[in-house]
From TrEMBL:
Keywords of this entry: Lyase
EC number(s) reported in the record: 4.-.-.-
Occurrences of domain NAD(P)-binding (ranges): 8-189
GO molecular-function terms, A-Z: lyase activity
Upper lineage: Bacteria, Pseudomonadati, Pseudomonadota, Gammaproteobacteria, Alteromonadales
The keyword Lyase is annotated on this UniProt entry: yes
Protein name per UniProt: Putative sugar epimerase YhfK
Keyword NAD: no
Length: 211
């Protein structure tokens, strides 16, 4: 059975995706800085690997055929951590994936990563990091699926999606749980290989939204 490496598995979206996959019987390698943050997940399908994304974490890729990059520096950190995690670690992950002949790399990016110049001064470092990480993955030769969700919300999953940008900024949002659902849906979906999607809550199923 194939294994999926989830980078940033202790983050909100990464943890949700980890729980979903092991519940479905998938083998998961969860890459985290502190394994205690996954102490509430018990499964024979789960292997936890501790590593610092600012260092070498190539060992986590051994035997993994799929990768989900769900790591992020977080909103409370500065531009330095944004560059080190959202850009540098993401680029290294793409390089490690290529060395290990990964079949699919699913990246969580961000709305606005296509054109960082249009972002606010506060958001530009983050959007530039996401843009450059996306471009590195696209140019790596690794089969990829890039999801660019709108503003992330902590509400319960709504179960409705759309990949076309809404007219109003207030509608350019999606719950973290819905993003996790989309990650799991994208994994192994050959129709979504080598494609970039913006993602928002809407009134379609995942199948309809990604059609």
């Amino acid at each position: 059975m194939s294994k999926t490496l989830i980078i940033g598995a202790s983050g909100q979206i990464g943890k949700m995706a980890t729980k979903q996959l092991v519940t479905k019987g998938h083998k998961v390698v969860a890459l985290v800085r502190d394994k205690a943050k996954l102490s509430d997940i018990t499964s024979d399908h789960l292997e936890i690997v501790e590593a610092d994304l600012e260092q070498d974490f190539s060992h986590a890729f051994k035997g993994c055929s799929n990768v989900i990059f769900a790591a992020g520096s977080g909103g409370s950190t500065g531009a330095d951590k944004t560059m080190l995690i959202d850009l540098w670690a993401a680029c290294k992950a793409a390089d490690y994936a290529k060395t290990n002949t990964v079949s699919q790399f699913v990246m969580i990016s961000s709305i606005g990563a296509d054109d960082p110049a249009q972002g606010s001064d506060e958001m530009k470092p983050y959007l530039v990091a996401k843009h450059m990480a996306d471009e590195h993955l696209i140019n790596s030769g690794v089969p990829y699926t890039i999801l660019r969700p709108g503003g992330l919300q902590n509400e319960e999953a709504k179960g409705g999606f759309q990949t076309t940008k809404p007219d109003s900024r207030e509608q350019m949002v999606i719950t973290r749980e819905d993003v996790a659902d989309a990650l799991v849906f994208a994994l192994g979906n050959k129709q979504l290989i080598n494609a970039v999607y913006e993602l928002f809550n809407g009134d379609q199923t995942l199948e309809q939204a990604f059609d």
